[in-house]
Specification:
The chain is about 45% helix and about 15% strand. With about 190 residues, it is of the alpha+beta class. Helix 2 packs across helix 4 (about 140-150). The longest helix has about 55 residues, at about 10-65.
Length: about 190
């Protein structure tokens, strides 16, 4: 009997049967395992971005308390880090800057300093110094997830469209490309 089992394993049918089983597993396992991994990675990216934004916002408030003003600064995160106010690893795709928004009637776009905080698409922060984070290399799905998590579904636009309402705004991002997301942190008059 033992010799019969060993001979069966050596037959071409045995090899073909096991090759088919391995091929089926190779097709099925990634679709089961990785499909469950991608949403977790997406959620992790959004969560990490939100935590970093909160750290930056706290550092901005600390800077303002220490100096009494906010300078116009194209890379304010670097300034906060140099002063020892902001710690941690800097995200390579995030830039925190301070810009001036002077025009009440400035049209709100996905890339300027005007923000519609109440969702009515009129600039609510004119004449103010605005602290915003600009995150580049963002997919349309990430941008929408970030907007939904920070603003809620009613202040977010459908996937692939411009989102100009609230603290998170962006121009349309191609479905297979990346774009820039502007995130309001705070402002001072």
């Amino acid at each position: 009997m033992r010799n019969t089992m060993l001979r069966d394993r050596e037959t071409p049918f045995f090899v073909i049967k096991h090759l088919w089983a391995m091929a089926a597993l190779a097709v099925l396992l990634p679709s089961v395992g990785l499909a469950q991994t991608y949403p977790a990675v997406d959620a992790g990216w959004v969560t990490n971005t939100m935590v970093r934004l909160q750290d930056i916002k706290i550092a901005v408030v600390d800077y303002y308390a220490k100096h009494g003003s906010l300078p116009l600064d194209a890379d304010f995160e670097a300034t906060l880090s140099k002063e020892g106010i902001l710690e941690g690893v800097r995200a390579t795709n995030m830039l925190t800057r301070i810009v001036l928004c002077l025009d009440l009637f400035a049209p709100i776009t996905g890339s300027n300093q005007a923000y519609s905080m109440d969702g009515n698409l009129t600039n609510n922060i004119n004449g103010s110094i605005v602290v915003e984070a600009v995150v580049s290399g963002v997919t349309a799905a990430y941008a929408r997830d970030l907007s939904i998590r920070m603003e809620g579904e009613d202040m977010s636009s459908p996937l692939g469209q411009t989102d100009l309402k609230g603290r998170v705004k962006y121009d349309p991002i191609p479905m297979r490309g990346t774009g820039e997301v502007h995130i309001y942190l705070t402002h001072r008059n």
